[in-house]
């Protein structure tokens, strides 16, 4: 959150659950990764054939040749609007088309003209049109450098690790009738090239993977001079800053159902977003590697392993070595299609990536509130009892969830006829309290009569719809219609689990790579499967309302662009302190690559949390974008009131803090929907300047803390260390009710935290909270400003129309001086005096019941 700092002190550590690593490949067990990683830097066989260069207004094309096997590639280079460059490399004449990822880009990226600056026998220089930015293409060996002035921003193939395995024909001796004489001769020559294990077929455990056109891997290296810190490429249960991989496996991107995943490990998890950011004090840049196949990412750095003292020694001794981070991407199939985002600021990067893949969907306001879930609530009576328990203990919630046991024999879009006999009565009971439900709909269909591809999952033998097909996605979406999904109502939303896809008896617990999706193999499309499932589900929820209501869909598997369709969570975590801690960098990493709506299972999915851990997890989860408690079938019940009155009160307070800040969360999601900027951000994103220039206020005590100091703050079980930055204005609603919808018309309290210049700014966004009518300009969007002892509200969207019954009930100004009087002026020219209290010990001024409508212009003057 942009102007709230949460300080989490994890003081208890414990061991992690043990994943069965034998179920999942290492790089050495993945033939293409092992093959590509064996290549040595500095031995590139590729050179650019400058005589083949063609330059139009929109692109440069150039052939590359591999001097070892004479196979030619086609390089395409585009200058894109918004300070980006696109590089595509494909076979010049492939045996058959290679997969190019569809549906992820929101449009074909608009281009800008390229111009030739110079050319000789060694290469060409092109202008990128932005200040002194240019691209240098070197011919032998092929290399591409992007420069600004004399500074190299990024280099491609500077280490010579470009590789492009071409598709080929299997040569079978004495079977010339299968191919032309020329083709068979070529196949024979290729067969005589170095044959390595796994090129045509590989086996993992009992599963075999045939490759009828041989190896098809691609790879390319990138170098970032001046960069030590790189981020992104989720999903991994690891630190925010990515580590070097020289002494272990690369980071793996391959959507998998990893049971009891291990922490601080580059193993693949449920989702894959092939985006990496490089950040230094001078510039932030990024790489978007658009490829949906299994991908491994190697990272090395010339400063890796150096201590702070070692770096200081280099500085004192005048070492001329410039820090540099080198990254290599390796994918099993497809083409090289990479977008180079040149920033220069973090917010520029977010805007650039959003222009390619879209922004976070704008969720219904209720989806930002608290969600109660477990595997499983047993029946309708159980749901009613839990619902009543929240009212009895005065704890708000908005959504209660049902896992797989609510269905008829694990057949999705159905209800167990005995346990959930009258689902509409249950849903209506929730609706009467302005609450909602989420039911799970997994992307496998119980097989009663056989199918094309069958695997084993929760229903037993199951079929897996081909979501890469638009007609299949249309059919899936149609199943959410009220006349198809019997028992569903408008307050029922959806959770897509197991959509990696999870196949219990498949290789690495997923689908076979040589399974066929039309003309493509599963190996080409694997990381997009979950993306397509969530896309189809979200479209189904939109269609059922006639395009009026915003959907809410939670997904476990995801890819680049998944932010357009809903929320994600960090999967099946454990009730351990380390898992609580890792939820923070995991969600921060997702936010950096566009997916802001992220959370972790509060309390941990596996195992049983201690009472202290459970309370602390609620206190942390209340300040993460997606706030849901969840638990495994075999764990004891853990509704918030089952741990004694004292702990119930602590959990209640954490949840209530979430509800008071819902206006701010909603405004932040409106912002990310329009800009791509993450809701939950690392401090280097929001505050690249000197932190000493800021002041922070404890949101509970209003204690002021100046920057440029280390604070040791005692933390008790009843305290959540949260701070508001001086210079910000945050709207709250302090009348917490049973659900967010019940608070719709309640008044606002504004918390104004003054900076050292005695100024502050903020925003207030209001709409109906659940429809797409904001696209029709039906909303209120206001700028709140405090300067020169005047607090004002100004309309940021004068062409928008919306009315609200909410009013401003209280204004709390932190770091204030005592005024002699406070005057409110409204648009009709009326002036009135405002009552106030001043706490001199804390410099807090409280204005009581100024009473103006939250949607109108007004000013308040302190005199």
TrEMBL record:
<feature type="signal peptide">
    <location>
        <begin position="1"/>
        <end position="18"/>
    </location>
</feature>
<protein>
    <submittedName>
        <fullName>Glucosidase II alpha subunit b</fullName>
    </submittedName>
</protein>
<keyword id="KW-0732">Signal</keyword>
<dbReference type="InterPro" id="IPR011013">
    <property type="entry name" value="Gal_mutarotase_sf_dom"/>
</dbReference>
<dbReference type="GO" id="GO:0033919">
    <property type="term" value="F:glucan 1,3-alpha-glucosidase activity"/>
</dbReference>
<keyword id="KW-0378">Hydrolase</keyword>
<dbReference type="GO" id="GO:0006491">
    <property type="term" value="P:N-glycan processing"/>
</dbReference>
<feature type="domain" description="Glycoside hydrolase family 31 TIM barrel">
    <location>
        <begin position="361"/>
        <end position="667"/>
    </location>
</feature>
<dbReference type="Pfam" id="PF13802">
    <property type="entry name" value="Gal_mutarotas_2"/>
</dbReference>
<feature type="domain" description="Glycoside hydrolase family 31 N-terminal">
    <location>
        <begin position="76"/>
        <end position="298"/>
    </location>
</feature>
<dbReference type="InterPro" id="IPR013780">
    <property type="entry name" value="Glyco_hydro_b"/>
</dbReference>
<dbReference type="GO" id="GO:0030246">
    <property type="term" value="F:carbohydrate binding"/>
</dbReference>
<keyword id="KW-0326">Glycosidase</keyword>
<dbReference type="GO" id="GO:0017177">
    <property type="term" value="C:glucosidase II complex"/>
</dbReference>
<dbReference type="GO" id="GO:0005975">
    <property type="term" value="P:carbohydrate metabolic process"/>
</dbReference>
<dbReference type="InterPro" id="IPR017853">
    <property type="entry name" value="GH"/>
</dbReference>
<dbReference type="InterPro" id="IPR000322">
    <property type="entry name" value="Glyco_hydro_31_TIM"/>
</dbReference>
<dbReference type="Pfam" id="PF01055">
    <property type="entry name" value="Glyco_hydro_31_2nd"/>
</dbReference>
<dbReference type="InterPro" id="IPR025887">
    <property type="entry name" value="Glyco_hydro_31_N_dom"/>
</dbReference>
<comment type="similarity">
    <text>Belongs to the glycosyl hydrolase 31 family.</text>
</comment>
């Amino acid at each position: 959150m942009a102007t709230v700092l949460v300080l989490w002190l994890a003081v208890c550590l414990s061991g992690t659950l043990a994943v069965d690593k034998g179920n999942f490949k290492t790089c050495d067990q993945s033939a293409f990764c092992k093959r590509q990683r064996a290549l040595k830097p500095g031995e590139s066989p590729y050179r650019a054939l400058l005589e083949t260069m063609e330059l139009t207004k929109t692109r440069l094309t150039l052939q590359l040749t591999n001097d070892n096997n004479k196979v030619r590639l086609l390089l395409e280079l585009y200058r894109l609007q918004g300070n980006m460059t696109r590089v595509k490399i494909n076979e010049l004449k492939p045996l058959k088309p290679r997969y190019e990822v569809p549906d992820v880009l929101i449009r074909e990226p608009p281009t800008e003209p390229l111009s030739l600056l110079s050319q000789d026998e060694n290469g060409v220089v092109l202008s990128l049109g932005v200040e002194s930015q240019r691209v240098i293409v070197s011919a032998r060996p092929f290399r591409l450098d992007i420069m600004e002035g004399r500074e190299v921003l990024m280099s491609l193939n500077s280490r010579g690790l470009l590789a492009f395995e071409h598709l080929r024909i299997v040569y079978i001796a004495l079977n010339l009738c299968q191919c032309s004489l020329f083709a068979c001769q070529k196949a024979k020559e290729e067969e005589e090239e170095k044959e390595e294990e796994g090129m045509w077929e590989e086996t993992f455990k009992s599963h075999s993977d045939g490759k009828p056109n041989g190896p098809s891997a691609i790879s390319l290296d990138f170098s970032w001079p001046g960069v030590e810190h790189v981020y992104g490429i989720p999903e991994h249960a690891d630190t925010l800053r990515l580590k070097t991989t020289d002494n272990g496996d690369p980071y793996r991107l391959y959507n998998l159902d990893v049971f009891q995943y291990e922490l601080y490990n580059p193993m693949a998890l449920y989702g894959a977003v092939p985006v990496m950011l490089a950040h230094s004090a001078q510039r932030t840049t990024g790489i978007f590697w658009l490829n949906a196949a299994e991908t491994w990412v190697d990272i090395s750095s010339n400063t890796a392993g150096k201590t702070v003292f070692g770096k200081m020694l280099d500085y004192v001794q005048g070492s001329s070595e410039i820090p540099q981070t080198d990254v290599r991407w390796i994918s099993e199939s497809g083409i090289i299609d990479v977008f180079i985002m040149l920033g220069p600021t973090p917010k520029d990067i977010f805007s650039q990536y959003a222009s390619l893949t879209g922004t976070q969907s704008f969720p219904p306001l209720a989806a930002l509130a608290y969600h109660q879930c477990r595997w499983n609530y047993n029946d309708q009576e159980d749901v009613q009892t839990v619902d009543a328990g929240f009212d009895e203990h005065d704890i708000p919630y908005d959504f209660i969830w049902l896992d797989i046991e609510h269905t008829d024999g694990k057949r999705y879009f159905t209800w167990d006829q005995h346990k959930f006999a009258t689902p509409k009565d249950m849903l209506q009971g929730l609706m009467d309290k302005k609450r909602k439900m989420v039911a799970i709909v997994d992307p496998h269909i119980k097989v009663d009569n056989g199918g094309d591809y069958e695997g084993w999952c929760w229903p037993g033998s199951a079929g897996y719809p081909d979501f890469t097909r638009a007609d299949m996605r249309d059919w899936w979406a149609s199943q959410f219609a009220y006349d198809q999904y019997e028992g569903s109502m408008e307050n029922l939303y959806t959770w897509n689990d197991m959509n990696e896809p999870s196949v219990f008896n498949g290789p690495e617990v997923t689908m076979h790579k040589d399974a066929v999706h039309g003309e493509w193999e599963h190996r080409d499309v694997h990381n997009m499967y979950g993306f397509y499932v969530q896309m189809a589900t979200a479209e189904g929820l939109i269609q059922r309302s006639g395009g009026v209501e915003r959907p809410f869909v939670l997904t476990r598997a995801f890819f680049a662009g998944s932010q357009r369709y809903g929320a994600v969570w960090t999967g099946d975590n454990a009730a351990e302190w380390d898992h609580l801690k890792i939820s923070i960098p995991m969600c921060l990493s997702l936010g950096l690559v566009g997916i802001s709506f992220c959370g972790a299972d509060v309390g941990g999915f596996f195992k049983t949390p201690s009472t202290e851990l459970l309370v602390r997890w609620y206190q942390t989860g209340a300040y993460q974008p997606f706030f849901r408690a969840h638990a495994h079938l075999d764990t004891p019940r853990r509704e918030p009131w089952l741990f004694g009155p004292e702990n119930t009160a602590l959990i209640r307070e954490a949840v209530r803090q979430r509800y008071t800040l819902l206006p701010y969360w909603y405004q932040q999601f409106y912002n990310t929907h329009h800009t791509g900027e993450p809701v939950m951000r690392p401090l280097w994103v929001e505050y690249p300047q000197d932190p000493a220039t800021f002041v922070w206020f404890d949101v509970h005590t209003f204690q002021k803390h100046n920057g440029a100091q280390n604070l040791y703050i005692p933390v008790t079980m009843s305290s959540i260390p949260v701070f508001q930055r001086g210079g910000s204005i945050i709207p709250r609603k302090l009348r917490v009710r049973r659900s967010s919808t019940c608070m719709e018309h309640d008044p606002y309290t504004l918390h104004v935290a003054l900076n050292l210049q005695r100024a502050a700014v903020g925003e207030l966004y209001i709409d109906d909270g659940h429809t797409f009518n904001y696209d029709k300009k039906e909303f209120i969007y206001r700028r709140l400003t405090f300067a020169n002892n005047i607090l004002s509200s100004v309309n940021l969207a004068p062409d928008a129309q919306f009315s609200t019954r909410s009013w401003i009930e209280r204004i709390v100004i932190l770091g204030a001086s005592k005024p002699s009087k406070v005057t409110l002026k409204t648009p009709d020219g009326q002036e009135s005096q405002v009552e106030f209290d001043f706490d001199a010990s804390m410099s807090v001024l409280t204005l009581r019941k100024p009473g103006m409508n939250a949607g109108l212009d007004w000013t308040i003057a302190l005199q």
